[in-house]
Amino acid sequence: MQTLKVELGERSYPIHIGEGLLDRPELLKPYIAGKQVAIVSNATVAPLYMERLTQALAGYNVLPIVLPDGEAFKNWETLQLIFDALLTARHDRRTTVIALGGGVIGDMAGFAAACYQRGVDFIQVPTTLLSQVDSSVGGKTGINHPLGKNMVGAFYQPNAVLIDTASLNTLPERELSAGLAEVIKYGLICDEPFLTWLEENVDRLRGLDQVALTTAIERSCAAKAAVVGADERESGVRATLNLGHTFGHAIETHMGYGVWLHGEAVAAGTVMALEMSARLGWISEQERDRGIRLFQRAGLPVVPPEDMTPEHFLEHMAVDKKVIDGRLRLVLLRRMGEAVVTDEYPKEVLQATLVADYRALVDQLRG
Amino acid sequence: MQTLKVELGERSYPIHIGEGLLDRPELLKPYIAGKQVAIVSNATVAPLYMERLTQALAGYNVLPIVLPDGEAFKNWETLQLIFDALLTARHDRRTTVIALGGGVIGDMAGFAAACYQRGVDFIQVPTTLLSQVDSSVGGKTGINHPLGKNMVGAFYQPNAVLIDTASLNTLPERELSAGLAEVIKYGLICDEPFLTWLEENVDRLRGLDQVALTTAIERSCAAKAAVVGADERESGVRATLNLGHTFGHAIETHMGYGVWLHGEAVAAGTVMALEMSARLGWISEQERDRGIRLFQRAGLPVVPPEDMTPEHFLEHMAVDKKVIDGRLRLVLLRRMGEAVVTDEYPKEVLQATLVADYRALVDQLRG
Predict the structure, then answer these.
(1) Which GO terms describe its biological process (chains A, B) (predicted)?
(2) What average pLDDT does range B165-182 have in this prediction?
């Protein structure tokens, strides 16, 4: 087991990473203040792990809350099911909410914990690679609104994060790849040597090699923990974590939530950010192609949806949270392993990036 | 004008109190970061003050958001109207939300500000006495749930509070009295000399004497600011501010939100807390009666609803946020001017308090 600490003053918390941690309740118990525990999961994950986690918490008054599965349910109506269950079971303000599932469950259970009686204790037990390396770290919680993704939410830190790498054994291959998109992202934005490691290990990761997975998760969480510790509320450097997300959110919004997985949209979106960085002359075309190839080897889409026009992108990006007083700030690569957040670019370069022929770009890679 | 400061480290903020402050935008402008401002008000207050505040903010991009009036609308559906308006107008994360109205508007606009894009700037412009002396100070925001009052919300501090005492000139008499319930509360829990001042000035307050109002508001806010500054998240002393609220919430829940005004329920609830404190021998019956008389002179109910049984009270109090692991903690008076939060009392005394004949108690005061 490896343990990282996210440094946030009095709200610092540990991330435990290792195989079989679901069966080690002594890692959770120091973070549960009362007798009441609510485990929030979904209809896919609950049959796999709910009983095991409930048994590990013998002696507590455990309330299982099972939500429908999918990004399409990341909305107020589903969140309300959590409040309904907590209130019906008379959970008081000393209850502890545990998120058992992927990013959607973590975001919703975290937001519910942030709001229930104005805030109760919260623990993350992420079971997907994406949530293990991304959404479980850093305290972003929330739900979608019909007019935009993650538009309603809170910054709310968990008391602890428990990552059982063995839970990836039941994860669909497509979701494993989606998680790798964020792993690759850390290499691109702040850790160039990690890119090289990934190029050497991507097949092992896809083959569920537990040692490689532990390393990748630990290194990803450490990168994110460092960035979040330096800038909890995303006034500066934290925004670099959104590499590919502005383009990616536009893709998700255009396609309808849940049609593309978040990591898939981030991969295609990051390819667009690489293309724009290359057009600005900040990285070379070879470096851009290096990124594209790694995403491809991870089993990810590298081309935006065929029917998306530049107008579609601009329309959806204009309500992105990174818009400051009408200027569109983007995360781009100053060089491989170093991201910047900037609105200082010629508008024509953004336009050229939106109309670029990504299919041709990818075809040429095969040659 | 008087200015208080609520001390909360980097989240400290000023409270400006005085006549005609709505026409002094220079007090607001230092707290507005971007160009976008959303003023959240209701159908009663907006016709009175929305245009004036909008004119004071000439030069900003002002979005008026007018909600239906009343505690019955303090729910998710109404909150959603704020998010809808902000997103439709493409307000970004640098927008500033201003609450213009009473406690319901402050709670909802504050919760919307806490959640919109995970938190935007927030200013309170309370226009009722209740919100001026209570809900605008301290950062409690939220909405009601069908199963309980204020069950969903956030601790979220405003950047500034602007209290124009002249706005009380348009306040219905019944609501002025409801506000006085919280004013009297401060005397009871932490400022015995203020009780004496109130006994001498309650008629002037009800007559809208601006000098007396300014003093009462300033002293109330100072009391609350001191308590909140010492205990922002209500782990200890802050809970004393809830004197009368546990009984009062039960009354509000039983009657249906909005039938009794919050301050009215608090007045009757506080009489019950006085009665229980007297039964415990902590205050004398004369002191209890002193409190009852002051509430009566302020135009407030001092007897719970006739049809409420002890069972009704216990049922509604069991989901109160002050329940810790099944023990019912109550705010009681150790002596006049000193409240305590405690679950150490014989259950029989609570039972006797619930069955006490308050009507007879009040009748005897007339004799």
Answers:
(1) amino acid biosynthetic process; aromatic amino acid family biosynthetic process; chorismate biosynthetic process
(2) 96
Q: Strands A121-126 and A96-101, how do they pair?
A: parallel
| Residue ranges of chain B whose CB lies within 8 Å of a chain A CB | 34-36, 76, 80, 83-84, 87-88, 90, 92-94, 114-119, 140-142, 145, 147-148, 150-155, 233, 318-319, 321, 323-325
Query: Tell me, what's the ipTM?
Result: 0.83
pLDDT at residue B258 in the model: 72
**Does the active-site annotation cover B238?**
yes
Q: Which two tokens stand for residue A86?
A: 């907590």
A363 is in an annotated binding site: no
Instruction: List B143's β-bridge partners, or say none.
Output: B152
Is residue A110 within 8 Å of residue A156, measured between CB atoms? yes
pLDDT (0 to 100) of residue A324: 57
Burial A277-305 (b: 16+ CB within 10 A, else e): bbbbebbeeebbbbbbebbbbbbbbbbbe
Alpha helices in A207-323 (DSSP H): 210-230, 245-255, 262-279, 285-297, 310-317
pLDDT at A256: 84
Residue B335 among the catalytic residues = no
**Together in a domain, B325 and B279:** yes
Residue type, B316: H
Q: Which residues of B touch A10 (CB under 8 A)?
A: none
A75 part of the active site: no
pLDDT band at A159 (very low <50, low <70, confident <90, very high): very high
My answer on whether B157 and B218 are in the same domain is: no
- Domain end, chosen from B135, B170, B205, is at B170
Residue A116 in tokens: 């229930």
pLDDT digits (tens, 9 = 90+) for A206-251: 999 999 999 999 999 999 988 887 876 666 788 899 999 999 999 9
CB contact under 8 A, B115 and A233: no
